[in-house]
Write a structure and sequence with these properties.
The complex is a heterodimer.
Chain A (H helix, E strand, L loop, with lengths): L3 H33 L19 H8 L1 H34 L5 H13 L3 H14 L5 H26 L2 H9 L4 H12 L1 H17 L2 H6 L8 H10 L7 H36 L1
Helix pairs in contact in A: 1-12, 2-12, 3-6, 3-9, 3-11, 4-6, 6-9, 6-12, 7-8, 9-12, 11-12
Chain B lengths: L3 E9 L5 E10 L4 E5 L6 H9 L6 E6 L2 E2 L5 H4 L1 E4 L11 H11 L4 H14 L15 H13 L5 E5 L7 H18 L2 E6 L2 H7 L2 E6 L2 E6 L1 H6 L4 H6 L6 E8 L2 E4 L2 E4 L2 H9 L5 E6 L4 E3 L5 H4 L3 E12 L3 E7 L8 H10 L11 E7 L9 E6 L5 E3 L18
Helix pairs in contact in B: 3-4, 3-5
Classes of the chains: A mainly alpha, B alpha+beta.
């Protein structure tokens, strides 16, 4: 096959390609990081490495108490929506992967439809509905639409995982005396754990990053999420130059996701590859 | 432990196709029974219906005298071993074997005692803390067996448990299964498509085809007196040779030559009102090198001359393949068997070849014409239309 020199040159090529991709993805992030450490007078100097370092921006962000409450809202809403979407999604995906029931194709089709539906066209009706039923500017007012849009994602990812679990395991559990619920809990769910984690992270990132619903369906600190709070920095006129604060807040927002991903990294990688083979 | 009774069990799928048609048989307490047949014959469906993994459309299933049609698998108190072993990959061997006991809410010491005991029987004591992924096929197979035996269920169901093992291991495991069953004395239903497994393991064999039971009997009965062409062709390796035959003037005219009829056979055929066009079946061991047959014995059979195509010496005996010219035996049963074998190569059929098993001392050689003697007293005669065995009609009716 390939001789040593061509293998080496191919390897170099891949290293270069990898570096380009990593730079492409990381430069904007590092730029934001750099901005967040710059003082107000050096913020527009165009230098990649701050000439004078400061933590002023971070301090300022936490002085805006809207941001603190928004962070709490973001965490709370995202976690609740993730848990609910994953629990419901797990059961739905299991049913789709394992059972034959009338209307199964329709259900899969509809959930795909929801995933493809342009969210922006739903904002005005949702705004009207939520105001009418009193959900506007509440946690459930955001959790509900998040679950709606996260479910198709959850169902798709999870059903791919369930399909990979040999059906005979379940039959074996049944023969071993387990009820369907016992078989599901002690055999299927542990085996689908990588899938569940992968899905949970994808859903969490989706909820955490959402801006559209958050900006349209909230108005006060009761439910405003961090993404909206950052956007509102510009509108808040008490700071002349909010660039530093926005950068600091953006960095802060990324931290939970990084922690989340690092924590479950091994599981996600295992999960994604095993889902990719047949999914 | 218990007996299992299938009373006209039928499986009808929602689209109207019939998987199993009115299967009826009784499995005695402690009996080792084999369901055998080509793929799609309904043997696994039958097993799954006994297990409760598939619904029974019609008929009644009784285990230990009780109707269990409506009972969930967990309430039937039977254990099953699957072809894929179906071990729980996230549990180690101990946890795998303990799972049914844990579900049954047995106390921990009792569980440990039973698991250790089963592990000892199956020689798994040193592997109790390993995960299935790190074990060989044979070890996994034993764990699957262990999970079935810990619970001391009323019956074991085994669905082709050895077919994922390589040939040598399969033979070892076969004797292990046999010993285990004798030791535990638990009623066992074993599904396989391998006739050798069926012959060696079972007290009785149920041969199935297309959802119908063809014959039920001990391995020897099935071998000696097959009820029809299908059973005759399925049981035995190398398979029985089939030749078209015309009954004329008290002899069979076959492509191989004329075969004389014994008086016994003639009277049987007369009483069965046999048609003139028939199919004769001859097992390979009922041939012999004519040079080695003593004269008084020779008279009890016929001798023909043919060219040896291929000669396989097994040491203990020789398999000589003869080319047969002329027409070949044609029947639905034989076509089915050919389809199952994955070839149009019906034993002694399309290729026009017959297999003979001769003594090791035979001097026949490849490419030479040789004289071969047939023991006509052992030949089986079948009706080409119905496939029924006309030689043993009274002895073994199709649905015993």
């Amino acid at each position: 096959m390939a001789d040593a020199s061509s293998t080496a040159s191919r390897k170099t090529w891949w290293v270069v390609a990898d570096i380009v991709v990593i730079l492409y993805a990381l430069v904007p992030v590092l730029w934001i990081l750099s901005l967040s450490f710059k003082t107000a007078d050096t913020i527009t100097d165009g230098s990649f490495i701050p000439r004078s370092w400061t933590f002023e921006n971070y301090a300022q962000v936490f002085q805006i108490d809207l941001f603190t409450s928004a962070l709490i809202n973001s965490i709370g809403i995202s976690i609740i929506a993730t848990v609910l979407a994953v629990v419901v999604g797990t059961m739905a995906a299991y049913a789709i992967a394992r059972l034959d029931f009338p209307g199964k194709k329709l259900l899969v089709g509809v959930s795909l439809l929801i995933a493809m539906f342009p969210q922006v066209s739903l904002v005005s009706p949702l705004f009207d509905i939520e105001r009418a039923v009193g959900l506007f500017d509440t946690w459930p007012g955001l959790i509900l639409p998040y679950i709606t849009f996260a479910l198709p994602l959850a169902i798709y990812t999870l059903s791919a995982f369930f399909r990979e679990i040999p059906w005979e395991l379940e039959k074996a559990a049944k023969m071993d005396g387990a009820t369907p619920l016992q078989a599901f809990r002690s055999i299927i769910v542990p085996l689908a754990a990588p899938g569940v984690f992968t899905t949970a992270i994808l859903v969490f990132i989706f909820c955490w990053n959402d801006f559209l619903f958050a900006v349209s369906l909230t108005s006060t600190r009761a439910s405003q999420t961090a993404t909206v709070a950052i956007a509102n920095f510009t509108g808040a006129s008490e700071f002349a130059e909010p660039t530093g604060s926005i950068a600091a807040a953006a960095v802060l927002l990324t931290i939970p996701i990084i922690i989340f991903v690092l924590l479950f990294q091994r599981r996600i990688v295992a999960g994604l590859t095993s889902g990719a083979v047949k999914g | 432990m218990a007996d299992i009774v299938l009373d006209e069990i039928t499986k009808r799928y929602p689209d109207g196709t019939i998987g199993v048609d009115k299967a009826s048989f009784e499995i005695a307490d402690g009996e080792f029974i084999i369901l055998v047949g080509p793929s799609g014959c309904g043997k696994s469906t039958t097993l799954n219906m006994i297990a409760g993994l598939e619904d029974i459309s019609e008929g009644e299933l009784r285990i230990g005298g009780q109707r269990v049609n409506e009972k969930a698998p967990k309430d039937r108190d039977i254990a099953m071993v699957f072809q894929s072993y179906a071990l729980y990959p996230h549990m180690n061997v101990r946890e795998n074997m303990a799972f049914p006991l844990k579900i049954a809410k047995m106390d921990k010491d009792e569980i440990n005692r039973k698991v250790e005991e089963a592990a000892k029987i199956l020689d798994l004591t040193h592997h109790l803390d390993r995960k299935p992924a790190n074990m060989s096929g044979g070890q996994r197979q034993r764990v699957a067996m262990g999970r079935a035996i810990v619970r001391s269920p009323k019956a074991f169901l085994m669905d082709e448990p050895l077919s994922n093992l390589d040939a040598k291991l399969r033979v070892q495991m076969r004797t292990m299964v046999s010993k285990l069953q004798q030791r535990l004395g638990t009623t066992t239903v074993y599904v396989t498509h391998d006739q050798t497994e069926a012959m060696t393991l079972g007290d009785r064999i149920v041969v199935m085809r297309g959802g119908h039971i063809q014959q039920i009997g001990s391995p020897q009965t099935l071998y000696d007196t097959p009820a029809n062409l299908f059973v005759a062709g399925f049981i035995g390796s190398p398979a029985m040779n089939f030749l078209p035959a015309k009954l004329e003037e008290g002899t069979f005219r076959t492509p191989l030559g004329d075969l004389s009829l014994t008086d016994e056979l003639r009277s049987k055929l007369e009483s069965a009102n046999a048609p003139r066009e028939l199919i004769v079946g001859i097992r390979p061991e009922h041939f012999e090198d004519a040079a080695l047959v003593e004269d008084h014995q020779k008279a009890r059979g016929s001798v023909f001359t043919a060219e040896v195509d291929v000669l396989e010496s097994m040491g203990s005996d020789k398999f000589a393949y003869f080319a047969v010219e002329g027409e070949q035996a044609i029947s639905d049963d034989l076509a089915d068997l050919a389809a199952d074998a994955g070839t149009a190569d019906v034993p002694g059929g399309d290729s026009g070849q017959i297999v003979t098993r001769l003594s090791a001392s035979s001097t026949v050689a490849e490419g030479e014409r040789s004289e071969v003697w047939v023991d006509t007293g052992k030949i089986q005669v079948f009706d080409p239309q119905s496939g029924k065995n006309l030689t043993t009609r009274e002895a073994a009716p199709a649905t015993a």
